[in-house]
Design a protein that fits this description.
Layout (H helix, E strand, L loop, with lengths): L1 E5 L2 H18 L4 E4 L3 H15 L9 E4 L1 E3 L10 H8 L11 E2 L8 H14 L5 E4 L21 E4 L2 H7 L12 E4 L2 H5 L3 E6 L5 H9 L17 E6 L9
Parallel strand pairs: 1-10, 2-3, 2-6, 3-5, 6-9, 9-10
Antiparallel strand pairs: 4-8, 7-8
The structure holds 2-amino-2-deoxy-6-O-phosphono-alpha-D-glucopyranose (GLP).
Amino acid sequence: MNIKQVEDYEAMSIAGAQLIMETVKRLENPVLGLATGSTPEGVYKQLIDAYQRQQVSFRETTTFNLDEYVGLAGEDPNSYRYFMDDKFFDHIDINKQQTFVPNGKADDLQQECEQYEQRLKDHQEIDLQVLGIGVNGHIGFNEPGTSFKTRTHVVNLAPSTREANARFFNSMQEVPEQAITMGIATIMKSEKIVLLVSGEKKARALDQLLHGDVTEEFPASILQTHDNVQIIADKAALSKVRV
Ligand code: GLP
């Protein structure tokens, strides 16, 4: 894993956006894996700016999001489909038909997961996957204890994850208990992965990722075994990293 240390959230966002733009410009039909959460928001802002300055076009880009809450429709402001449209897709020239987010309202969730995997295969997998990290080491919604062999699947969210994400909902009761997420094996098939980490609250997780064992108890640790991972972390996130 390659680590790029940057000053702060804004510098992380700029560096992340640059990496995405390089990929989009280099490939004829780029396939991006995208993430939600507070961490990548700044990257999307930078990309929108670059698009408006005509530095990049997403016309030929296909995207696959990591995850979605079960039970929330795309029109629900707390769904990840809504987040992506609102914070990114509605402001660039991407073909919306080429932006995939798991459907959390599918009648048959199992079938939805299988279709998602198939669609990824049809697109020859992801060229660049953007990842954030949960404080418990989750990636996507793969909670501690998830098998490294998993493909896209339905998960029960850990209480700590529901609590961490409750800030977006009116009450804890409204936070969904399940989600669909790309599996760890799905994420690992990506050609390249960029992990964005910002802020002191992620510092322990980052230290464990860099120095801990590779274990299913800390899902992000699998990234140690991928041969093309770029971590972009700010000073606060690196503040607890053992040297
Ligand atoms: C959520 C998402 C993850 C994300 C994580 C961290 O649970 N499913 O993909 O990485 O939260 O979120 P944040 O960037 O807001 O800290």
